[in-house]
Queue: 2 jobs
Job 1
Amino acid sequence: MKARIFLLFFALLSTSCMQHTVVTSGQQTVKSFIINPTNQWNLIPKQFSFAGLPAWTVDGGSLNSLIFISEISHGDTLLPSTNDKKLDTYDKDMLPNEIIEFIESTLLIYTDAKITNRGTLRPIKIGVDQGFEFEFEFVKNDEVPRKAYIAAASKNEMLHLILFQATKIHYYGHLIDDVKNIISSAVIKT
Amino acid sequence: MLVIPSASYSFERLTPEFGSNYAPNLAKTEAGLWMEFSDHENQLKNSPVRINDIDLDGYLKEVLCKLALEYCEDVRVYVIRNPYFNASMAPNGMMQVHTGFLLRVENEAQLASVLGHEIGHFLKRHSIKSMEDTNTKSSFFAFLSLGVVGAVASGNMNADFGRSTLDLSNLILTGSIFSYSRDNEREADKYGIQLLNDAKLDINAAKEIWVNLIEEKKAASEDITAGSYFYATHPDPGERINNLESHAIALNRTSQTSIIKNKETYWEKISPILPIALKDELNLRQFEQTEYLFKKLLNNNVSLGLIHFYLGELYRLKEIEEEEHLIKEHYNKATEYEDYPAEVHRSLGLIDYKARNYPEAKGHFNKYLNMKPDAHDKEMIEFYINTGA
């Protein structure tokens, strides 16, 4: 029991001094993406990032974050499955509309996020690969309106996507151009 | 306080613990709790998760007032976009009902039985009593600290996908910090059926909800209490059914009970929330349970185009070879009704596109865009049209 209490206190204390590593501008490789940010971001430590995924932030993860989800194979869930949350699985033949349904369902089950407004879904190129982009507004139980932008492509029968989310007020508008610059520099490794 | 069904059981009326227009004494803990919830209620009024439909809100208030009578103005009801079956009552009279609850209710009498149950919690001051209980207070603080640390220790899955949801009022509302005791729940059930009877609505509606929920869970081969905080903290649904039945029998003996259900009015009023409620339900990917629910909804003869569309969507997402014929069957059936959504053609187009039936796909995509020229995915659909061989 004492050991558990110690562990819990340690975990609590560690939140106050967690270290973010600076991600400098210039070419970076994050999972299957090679990208070229022109501004400085911060790497969120894995234990504090969304589902333990590689993620960057400018002002702190709760205000804005750029999350890299890649190499999702046929039959995989988008996020690591937990025992109590049965998530939808990826199908290599999914079309962009179906991938959006897959993401929407995953976010609802995993984080209770509900899409409140759908922006444009349109085709884009990520490097040489045909992909798509999608913008949406969502809300979780904390009722803070948020906006998100997804750029994704299927390559070698695997799904690769970058998800940017931020509070609708200020942070989304403040960073979306920078995010789109990063996407336009992105290449998916073969 | 388990009620054993017997011929001798007589229904003793419950009475409120305070008068209407009650406000707590500022010197008491209760006043602080009310203030906390008043703040939350002010935020909730403009929250994106609140479904703000004037007609529906007016209807819910009307039903609420039939039950609460002189307490009508002391209770406010809000519809919350949430696919899970739940309704809750805060100590200050703020009631929340989920879209997932409204989707599962079959008529006004069933709705009233749950609103009555929540009013019962309010009139008996159950949440205040729970807070005032010493044991609950200590577990409250223990839970709060464990909850914060637990979220971090478990990898904090929400940490950079929006603020953590660990704010006080939210946790109380979701029942995560303290729940009403099972005796409180039984008392609220009894109060609910009493108010239902006074409002001259069918008192059997109270148990019907639980019978339906058990059937829905059975369809998914699930134990109703498994993995659900709501069911785990409430009396066993079987016990509730027995108790509600006993109350109904006793009331039948002593008063003139009604069989009024007001089914048509109910469905007319909730039809505006159906598109969002059906989509959220499907997004939970609980296919067996959802299939049972959607098929049941067909019996209400309301929004049939929409419900057939979502049944088609369900079979498309389920991807079971033996059920493949049901996809187009339901989409085609949907188009027989005036209220069918344009998305029927988009889904048919996607199926044909993947099967490389490009001319058919193009036809459906064009129909979709004709019906919905400002569709958010217009550019993507045009891409499919242009890339089809």
Job 2
Amino acid sequence: MWTGILIAVLVLLGLALAFGALLGFASERFRVEGNPLVEQIDAMLPQTQCGQCGFPGCRPYAESIAEGGAINKCPPGGESTIKALADLLDVDPQPLDAEHGVEQARRVAVIREDECIGCTKCIQACPVDAILGAAKHMHTVIESECTGCDLCVEPCPVDCIDMITIEPDIRGWTWSQPRIITTDKQEANS
Amino acid sequence: MPSTIKLWDFSGGIHPAENKQVSTRRPIQTAGIPGQLVLPLQQHIGEPAEPVVAVGDVVLKGQKIADVSHGMGVPVHAPTSGVIESIGDYPVPHPSGMTDQCIVLKPDGKDEWCERFPISDYRTLERNQVLGVIHSAGVAGMGGAGFPTDIKLKPPRDRKVDTLILNGAECEPYITADDMTMRERADKVVAGLKIMAWILRPERCVIGIEDNKPEAIAALREAIQGTQIEIAVIPTKYPSGGEKQLIQVLTGMEVPSGGIPADIGVMCQNVGTAVAVSDAVFEGSPLISRVVTVSGEAAESPGNFEVLLGTPIAYLLEQAGLQQDRVSRLVLGGPMMGYTLNTTAVPVIKTSNCIIAATASELPAPPPEQACIRCGQCAEVCPMELLPQQLFWHSKAAEFEKAEHLNLFDCIECGACSYVCPSSIPLVQYYRYAKGEIRVQRAEQLKADRARERFEARQQRLEREQQEKELRRKERAKAAAEAQALKKAEAEQSAASGEAVDERAAKSALVEQALARKKASAEASNAKAAPPSEAEQEAPDLDALEKQFSQAQSKLETMQAMLEDAKAQQADNVDKLERAVAKNHDRVKRAEEALADARKTLAAQTEPQSIK
């Protein structure tokens, strides 16, 4: 009888050791560098790199969220980003924190080129290198690369940068959602 | 003669009232030249064309007025001779009702052609040359999408087209433009098809026609005599004219999800496109007009018109005898897939095939949407075998990912589901909305990814620059430290040899000289101010001499240093320097002697004074 128990204990011990070694090996062999959650969160952020959240760029903000920080600090992303983040992290969506700004329509920076003195200050401020120019030469914004982050406006010594809201045009137009159904309307009215 | 071609069927489909007879009663008429032609720069899929004329230019009929320099697209031509009145934003036929860049042409009434280059035997040319002719004639798919025909006729090398299908099904109610074209211009249709077949070299060439067009079938049968082209008469069912449905009916194959017909070796071309290709090659005339059906109960004389592109729809409706008081809704395209026009100022473009001037009883305003009762009729009629109900739920709840997962993008927006829905839910509108949202999201995601890439690249660059700067700073510091150590060693050496050839000493000497000069000048002015005594006259002399001496000495020192340097470097000016040093030695000696003399005389003068 004792030998039976002994055999069982030994077998279980052997299995435990074997699987322990396997798990240990696997954790070393398939180690994931960095936090994959940060990548996922970063992919959801609008990448304007505007710093309105108080972090120097979207990735640091993503890192803070991954560590349990607030998810409502990104005005360019707005409600939809907050909702997506809430879904991903399985937390309750919160309204956008007004302290960091309000959600605005997509904008793009435009330099009034005849007023530009070529000081290169905006070029240094642009987080995505979307401004082109050289010292004492006119600068211009590459519109397709501009994220509308606002960061170039403040450093300009002659205030020649305007933030222009992108107007919907015929090529960017999409169908709108059909009206709500009649029964809903009646309920809403009553 | 019964058709012996094996046909397949597609699932779903509906049989709406055809309403085609009204517009086939009379032959195609020419609409004439309106007072103004508005030509949108984008009448095709791809990049908009760019104007190649300026306001005030006189253009001839068929002259190119806009061209595409980069990207996909086709040029735009002047439909008649006249003057370019303006280039700017005008309303264009688009469901958004927005404006777009257009060229406005004021016809001069002469309708004078530019020079044309007809090709009588295209077989002697290269295939690419013929494709070039089709491109420069501005031919784009006239069935509705407006895809540039020359690009479509040049599928990738690995996608050999085995079956070329000419789409003459025209399944949508009211529209008879293709029907009338086939009846009256069967020769051109077949000629165009032959050109396309010659370019593509398919094994099989089929014209698909619905069985509700017996006249067109008869005309085409006549025209294909002596060719290998087949005519497939298919049962009337909406939407058999859809590209994917027609392919399924004629070949039994399905176009893969997200793919194009060329993926399964099939290509579909429209009847109108075939005519345009034929005109481009055999007449050398670009695409400047098309056949448009004007129908609806509010039109007194409905029918098909040969319309110049750019003709305002108001003008065309006038030709068809529009009864302003009866019309309640204007639809561009068919009743199933078309859209309501809010203005008659928009022009006819390459893809406009039908205008319906409907009375209130004919196309009543859609009844209000009711809740879905899950009857499942939409799924039964869906020709793409999708799940319209599920797509509807997800689109409405903005769960676009789920809708996409259920193959939302395979929806051809035929409207069969909306047509049968007993709750009159505008299902297609929901799908269009969802598709638009998904496209916007994708574009934003793409932009965000690019922004992230650029941001990260910039961060890396800044870091690298910082490191380089740091490296340079360190190198400079190191070099400075070495130089200082060297100097120190030199100073020690020179101190040991007793000659203070220190730069600092030289500098201080210079400063002393400057001070002395200042002092001297100040004293000189003092002397001028007050009549100088003897002693005072003598004293400045001594100072000047002292100054001269120290100046000469310091000069000699620097010269000696230079000479040493030159010797060390074995420069060729050593001789000169040596001579200069010798000269300076003399000068220093003289100055010393002069100073000594002066001191002696001064001492001789002061002694008697002190005695006094």
